[in-house]
Every structure is written in structure tokens, then in C-alpha cells.
Amino acid sequence: MTINVPPHNREAERIVLGGLLIDNTYIDTVASILPPEAFDFSAHRLIYRAVIALHEQNIPVDFILLGDELKKRKHVDKVGGMAYISKLLTEVSAITNITHYAGIVKDKYLLRRLISVCSRVMDRCYDEAGEADGQVEYAQRCVSDLIDVSAKSTISDLRDLVQSSVAEMDAIAAGDQIVPGVPTGFNELDKIIGGLHAGELVIIGARTSVGKTTISLDIARHVATAGYGVLDFSLEMSKSAITHRLIAAKAGVSLHNLHRGLLNEDRRAAVHRIKESLEALPIYIGSPASLRIQQLFSRAKVIKQRHNISVLIVDYLQLIKAPKKTAENRQQDVAEIARRLKEIASELDITVIALSQLRRSEKGISLKTPGLSDLRESGEIEQAADKVIFLHNPQKRTHLHRNIRIKGTVAKHKNGPLGTFDLIFNGSSATFKDAVPKSDDDEVDDEVEDEVDVPDWVK
């Protein structure tokens, strides 16, 4: 019968401890990587705790002082005596490798924890404790807890926060920084909301075919061009359709003709010119057939760890499945999803942009500017959101033979003013841009390349 031994590397543990005794300057670095529990050998855990205790008291850590600390704790015999500590000093060949060995110790520690987590999950499954969806959520939560999403502490010194805020204010005043947050790429909108901010949930709502998906992809492209990572989850569109939109917007060509493969030679050349710059953008796209909120969190957490994304886009909120199926009360489901999206923004320290459907319009109502009461299926969406932005097409044109003006409204802004802004929708490339000041007849007569009807794919 084979007995499985938990992963460990005692040689790496000894090298880490010996290195700390030789050069105390590595203690803070190693302490940020390894908790005492990371050491598999109990004697090593006791020695490491004594090292950290001395360091926190600003006492130099050497052979003699460590021995005194272990005697006070009555741990000398438990660690193998002073002879064992002396042996630790002889096993270190190169101090500069200490962080490498600390990484090995951490890897083994995480594997042991993962084994423990899997064992607990298996026990719960065998006991049939609850529904399968609940067990999957429990497993995902346990595993995601093992991922070190951010090295930053959740507690900050007010002095550091004040210094950061004043420096940000000075940078904006000097023109070195346009807005306090991540720019959306739309100047009038950024003037109102101050850009996108980590920890916030931003809702973009509009009726069908006004441009929710389009503006979200425009924001993704602008944010990524500024060097910030973006994760886009679309539950309505395929990855290919999203890619086509990004190409058409970047190259300024007809999306309809790009879909059909009917671009002329000049337009194909334009696509090839932007190919490399578009490939370089830190945009990551997911297009699952269905998605539960706990799956969204787990996947976003992994991508945050791997690529340090700043913005998560969800298209759209009402298509996400709640943690538990409660078909008899969809409003409660949507309320829970909205709250969880806000939690994702806070825990991952990112901006979450969630697109939202509006209530089905009554006859004659669709021409009115949307309000917070129009958010579909739940007033809790409004409560969870930090910002709510509406897009509205007052002219209600469906065949976009030329550019049209779209009205934007910031209807909720927890930390700032409300306001309106104008955008121009380009019906050919399916992209938005800032509007020029209105003319007397309120017509926008910019030239549109490859005029086409755009009925179905405008969202």
C-alpha cells in the first residue's frame, strides 16, 4: 500500500532559515512571502517564529541571540538543540538565492493547503451536504482563497493615503494626469465621472440597439491603449464578433463589409496597418454560453493574478446566473448578482462595468430619456452601483446611413456630480466618438465610409 507524503522540501526550508541568520536584510522580504505555517518541519516553524519575533523588536538575529530567544520560549530541545541551528549556517551557499528557495517553500505549502481543501470538498460531496451548485461554489471559494491576488495590505496608513491623494491632485493640476481615474476615452464623460476607479461598479444601461456593447468595447480599447488590462465577458456575442468590432473601430472600416469579407484593397490595407497595434492591446475576451456569478468571480480572479487587469466588462448583467436558482423571484436573483459584482470590484481592486437592459418600453415612452427606475428587474442594481450611465437615442433612427447623435446621462454618481454628454455614433465602423458642439439644426453630417444599413448588430 502506497502512502502519499504531503509535498515538502526541508532542504529549501533549512537554506531559507540559514540565509536569514547570515543576512537579516532579507527578513522583511521573506516574511512577505512566507507565513510560519509554510514550513512543513515543526522545528523550522519554531525557529522562524523566533526569528520574526526578534526582528519585530528590532533585535539583530544571530546565532547567540536566536538561541536566547528559543531558550525563553523553551524550544531549544524541540528544534534539535543549538547544534542544529549551527548546522543551518553551514548549508547556505549563496545568500542571493534565498528568495528562490523561499518560493520553493511557498509552492510546497500551497500544494499542502490545496490537498487539504480538496479533501474537505470531497468529504462534503460524499456527505451530499447541499445541492451540487452549492458544493461547486464552496470549492471555487476555497480554491480562490489560495490565490494571492494582491500583495497590498487591506489596511493603509492615512499618511500614505494623504500623500497619494495630494500627489494625484498636483499631477492633474500640472496637466500630467487628465483625470483621477483610468480615462474612458470620452472627454465629456470623463469630466463628469473623473474616469474609472478601482473598487467601483459602473452600470451602463440603454434600450435595445442604442449602443451598450459598442461603447463598452470602445472603452475597452481606449483603456487598453492607455496600458491598462481589460477582461471582457460577453454572454451575447462570440469572440469572433467582438474581434471584428475591435478591428473595424481601430481601422475605421465598415463593420458590415468586414463581416462579409467585402473590404476593398485600401480598406484591407488599413486593417493590416493596425493589426500589430491591436494585437498588443492587453484585452482578454471570454464568451461563455452561460455563466454563474461565482464562475465569473473565479475566472476574473485568475486573470487578475496573471495579467493584472484594471477593468472587467460584463455584457450583460441580466444574463448572468445567480448562485442559486430562484426562478420564482428573478428580482432577488438580479439583486444578488449586482451585489456580487460590487464585491468583485472591491475584492479584486478593479472597475467592473456591467451592461444592463432597461424595462420594456411602453408605446411612446422609448423617446424619453431613461431614468434609474427603468433599470430592468431590480432596483438593487441602482443601490449596488457607484455610477449609473444611460445612453439614449432621441431620434430613434434604426438605419444608420449617417452618423447620429446619442445622448448620455450620468444618473447616479456616488462621489461626484450628475450630468449629460453627447456622443456621435458612426454607423459604418460601429463606434462612438465625442460629439462636436450642436449646430442650429442639430444635424450631424460627418462623412460615413461605406454607407450601409445596420439593423441587427448594433447593440
What this model shows, in words?
The chain contains 16 helices and 9 strands. It is of the alpha/beta class. It has 2 domains: 96 residues, DNAb Helicase, Chain A (Orthogonal Bundle); 255 residues, Rossmann fold (3-Layer(aba) Sandwich), CATH 3.40.50.300. A 9-stranded mixed β-sheet has the order 3-2-4-5-1-6-7-8-9, sandwiched between helices. Helix 1 crosses helix 6. The radius of gyration is 28 Å and the shape is elongated. The C terminus is likely disordered.
Helical amount? 40-55%
Kindly provide the name of the CATH class of the largest domain: Alpha Beta
**Poorly predicted segments:** 148-154, 439-459
Average of pLDDT = 80
Query: In which order are the strands of the major sheet placed?
Result: 3-2-4-5-1-6-7-8-9
Structural class: alpha/beta
Q: Choose one word for the global shape.
A: elongated
Our estimate of the beta-strand percent is 5-15%
The Cα radius of gyration reads: 28 Å
CATH superfamily of the largest domain: P-loop containing nucleotide triphosphate hydrolases
In total, the number of domains comes to 2
What CATH architecture of the largest domain do you see?
Answer: 3-Layer(aba) Sandwich
N-to-C SSE string, H for helix and E for strand: HHHHHHHHHEHEHHHEHEHEHEEEE
* Tally of helical segments: 16
Distance N to C terminus: 61 Å
Q: What kind of sheet is the major sheet?
A: 9 strands, mixed
CATH topology title of the largest domain: Rossmann fold
Number of DSSP-assigned strands:
9
